[in-house]
Design brief:
By secondary structure, the protein is mainly α. It has helices spanning 3-15, 35-38, 46-51, 99-102, 121-127, 133-146, 148-166, 173-218, and strands at 41-42, 58-60, 85-87, 110-112. The protein has 2 domains: 35-127; 133-218, no CATH class. Helix 6 runs antiparallel to helix 8 (173-218) and helix 7 (148-166) packs antiparallel against helix 8. The longest helix has 46 residues, at 173-218. The relative contact order is 0.07.
C-alpha cells in the first residue's frame, strides 16, 4: 500500500458523514424503556402496596424513613407480575425474611434497599440463589453471550496479524510459518472452548457440586 492510497483513505474517512442520533426514516438507533418504567408509585404502608394495580412496574418508598413496611408485608409483591423497579429505602422493618418474597419477582431490573438496617448479607444472598436448573442455564448463557464480542474482537485481531505469515515467501518464511501455525490453532481452539465447552462443563460442575445440594434440604 503506497502513500497515495493511505492519503486517499484518510480523506475518505474525513469526508464520511457523521453518525446521527436518528436513522434516515426518523427513528432513533436506540430504544428507551416504556414511559411506565419511569412512572413511580409511592407507598408508605402495606395498605398502599395492596391498593396498587397489578400492572404496576415501579414501586418506591421515597427517601424518607417513615415507611411502615415489614418483611411479611412484602408477600403482597406476588401480585405484580410486571414489576421492574423496586425502591424500598430506609425501611427498617424489612429484614432477611423479606428477601424470600423479593427473589420471586423475576421481572425485576432495578432493586434499591439502601437504608434497610435489618438486612444483612444472609438476606442479600437469597437474591442470588439459584432455584432450579433452568435459572443456572440462563445465568451461564447470559455470561457466555457477553463474552462473544470481546473474544471475537481479540481472535479477529490476532488472526489478521498471523494469517498473512502463512502465505509469506520471503527470507525466514519457513521459520515464521512454524511459529504462526500453532498460535493460530491455539487461538481458534481457545475461542471454541471459552464459548462452547467451558460453559457446559461449568453447568455440570455447578449443578452437581453446589446448586443441587442446596435444593435437597428444601425439597
Amino acid at each position: 500500500m503506497n502513500r497515495w492510497t493511505i492519503i486517499a483513505l484518510l480523506l475518505l474517512g474525513g469526508c464520511a458523514p457523521k453518525p446521527t442520533d436518528q436513522e434516515p426514516g426518523g427513528e432513533p438507533y436506540f430504544s428507551l424503556p416504556s414511559e411506565a418504567y419511569f412512572k413511580e408509585s409511592r407507598i408508605q404502608s402495606r395498605a398502599d402496596l395492596e391498593a396498587l394495580p397489578a400492572e404496576t412496574v415501579f414501586i418506591t418508598s421515597g427517601d424518607h424513613g417513615s415507611v411502615e413496611l415489614s418483611s411479611d408485608d412484602l408477600h403482597a409483591l406476588a401480585r405484580f407480575s410486571r414489576l421492574q423497579r423496586l425502591h424500598l429505602r430506609h425501611c427498617r422493618g424489612i429484614g432477611n425474611a423479606g428477601m424470600d418474597y423479593v427473589a420471586t419477582r423475576t421481572s425485576l431490573l432495578d432493586l434499591d434497599l439502601s437504608g434497610c438496617v435489618a438486612l444483612t448479607g444472609e438476606g442479600i444472598a437469597k437474591l442470588a440463589t439459584l432455584r432450579n436448573l433452568r435459572e443456572l442455564q440462563d445465568a451461564i448463557m447470559h455470561g457466555a453471550v457477553k463474552r462473544i464480542r470481546p473474544k471475537f474482537m481479540t481472535v479477529a485481531c490476532m488472526f489478521t496479524g498471523l494469517l498473512p505469515i502463512m502465505w509469506s515467501a520471503g527470507t525466514g518464511a519457513d521459520v515464521m510459518k512454524r511459529i504462526a501455525a500453532p498460535m493460530i490453532g491455539g487461538i481458534f481452539t481457545s475461542f471454541i472452548l471459552e464459548l462452547v465447552v467451558y460453559p457446559a462443563i461449568y453447568e455440570v460442575w455447578k449443578w452437581h457440586s453446589e446448586v443441587k445440594k442446596q435444593l435437597s434440604p428444601q425439597s
